Recover the amino acids of this structure.
């Protein structure tokens, strides 16, 4: 057994000279078939992140294992690829094979995984290294979507060896990444940023302030840009998430266990009144009253998207996992695909699925085998225009990171626009839930006949029907000053 484990590890280990030009090249073995760089958020999963870091360093070369709290992934990858390029120019065939075969493992929550994916995207490599994700967060939507599970893993040697075996067998799979732009008018008095008074979450830190020379910049406006991989949402689910993150910042000692975190999430959904939304949340604050929504199909024109007046939460979804494994879009049946000009939900088709929810009871339908939210549209680009209205703020969220967004108080407009940016490579196991347009259509069209009844008639149902059905509630580069412990 020890010999077989040793043989397995040889296929992943990268010799020290690849990382350090002061190291002499001697007795370099055959190039590993699956060389990996491992990035771990040691603060994720309570004590699990730190334990996992120790285990990986003990079985691999410690130079290929990194704590993202100690050294940012962008600095690591830039240094490694510069070194590989230098060695390749020196006709180092071993380094060329490492460059060609390199894979990445990232262990943390969805925020950590999104950070790493954003860095890989920013490198703009001819062949970006595929990424495997270890679920160390609360929701773990990214790992779950690609078959890596959603429960926090074991951290012992055997558990890590088992994970590496899965990495060895995993297939590469493309995933769309999405650009998000937010623009709001600069204050008429003073120089403060319009969202500076808020305690900004990581989702807004993920936005890079657009420079004055950027073509997206507009005179008199503050413009932010960033990206996401899984979803953008607005409304009740983001409000519950915001309450959760606020509570975790105030009392981090209470959020060291995945099960406790999920229980707290559910309690917040109840205490904030989303199970009696018509009583605690007036319809004047519903999505249709807050924003004008426009969508664009591929190579099409902007068109208005009609949002039912009862919708209090809207989700723009890329992956089939939201709030810890729920699938708001579901599986439309063949009739609905035809009649509404929809396509099966693929993660690499350049389209986002747009889903609405009325309240927490509506979201509970996702727990049923064929449950889904109100399917609104599929789009290549989405634009939200917020004008002066009944509310002075709303709540938004990208990939699990929420923020409280101020809305216009005069005649100005806040604009949020989402558009397709490109793709990166993921590693997927045989249990992968995500579907690719490259897959055989006959194997993905209807999931072996498990179509839902696709009754979207709830759009026109009376508010009294709300109590029949749980609003599903649980990135890019993050600057050095961000507390990485909160990226769980």
């Amino acid at each position: 057994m020890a010999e077989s484990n040793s043989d397995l590890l040889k296929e992943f280990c990268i010799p020290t000279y690849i990382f350090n030009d002061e190291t002499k090249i001697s007795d370099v073995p055959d190039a590993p078939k699956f060389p990996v760089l491992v990035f771990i958020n040691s603060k994720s999963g309570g004590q699990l992140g730190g334990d996992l870091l120790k285990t990986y360093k003990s079985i691999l070369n410690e130079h290929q294992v990194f704590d993202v709290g100690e050294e940012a992934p962008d600095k690591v990858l830039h240094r490694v690829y510069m070194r590989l390029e230098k060695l390749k120019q020196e006709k180092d065939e071993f380094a060329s094979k490492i460059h060609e075969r390199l894979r990445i493992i990232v262990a943390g929550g969805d925020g950590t995984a999104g950070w790493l994916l954003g860095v890989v995207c920013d490198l703009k490599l001819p062949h970006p290294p595929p990424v495997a994700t270890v679920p160390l967060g609360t929701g773990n939507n990214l790992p779950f979507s690609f078959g890596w599970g959603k429960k926090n893993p074991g951290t012992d040697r055997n558990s890590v060896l088992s994970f590496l075996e899965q990495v060895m067998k995993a297939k590469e799979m493309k995933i769309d990444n999405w650009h998000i732009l937010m623009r709001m008018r600069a204050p008429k008095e003073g120089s403060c940023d319009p969202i500076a008074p808020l305690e900004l979450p990581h989702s807004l830190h993920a936005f890079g302030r657009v420079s004055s020379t950027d073509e997206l910049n507009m005179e008199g406006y503050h413009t932010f840009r960033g990206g996401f991989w899984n979803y953008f949402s607005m409304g009740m689910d983001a409000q519950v998430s915001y309450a959760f993150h606020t509570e975790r910042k105030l009392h981090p000692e209470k959020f060291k266990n995945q099960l406790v975190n999920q229980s707290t999430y559910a309690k917040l959904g109840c205490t904030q009144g989303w199970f009696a939304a018509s009583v605690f949340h007036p319809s004047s604050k519903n999505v249709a009253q807050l924003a004008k929504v426009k969508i664009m199909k591929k190579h099409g024109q902007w068109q208005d998207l009609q949002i039912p007046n009862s919708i209090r939460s809207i989700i723009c979804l890329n992956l089939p996992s939201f709030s810890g494994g729920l699938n708001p879009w579901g599986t439309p049946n063949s009739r609905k695909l035809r009649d509404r000009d929809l396509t099966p939900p693929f993660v690499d088709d350049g389209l986002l699925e747009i889903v609405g929810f009325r309240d927490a009871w509506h979201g509970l339908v996702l727990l049923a085998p064929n449950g889904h939210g109100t399917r609104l549209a599929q789009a290549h680009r989405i634009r939200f225009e917020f004008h002066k209205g009944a509310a002075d703020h709303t709540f938004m969220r990208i990939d699990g990171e929420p923020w409280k967004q101020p809305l216009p108080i005069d005649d100005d407009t806040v604009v949020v626009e989402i558009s397709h940016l490109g793709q990166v490579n993921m590693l997927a196991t045989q249990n992968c839930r995500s579907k690719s347009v490259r897959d055989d259509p006959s194997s993905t069209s209807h999931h072996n006949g498990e179509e839902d009844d696709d009754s979207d008639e709830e759009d026109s149902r009376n508010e009294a029907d709300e109590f029949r059905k749980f609003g599903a509630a649980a990135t890019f580069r993050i600057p050095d000053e961000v507390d990485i412990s909160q990226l769980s």
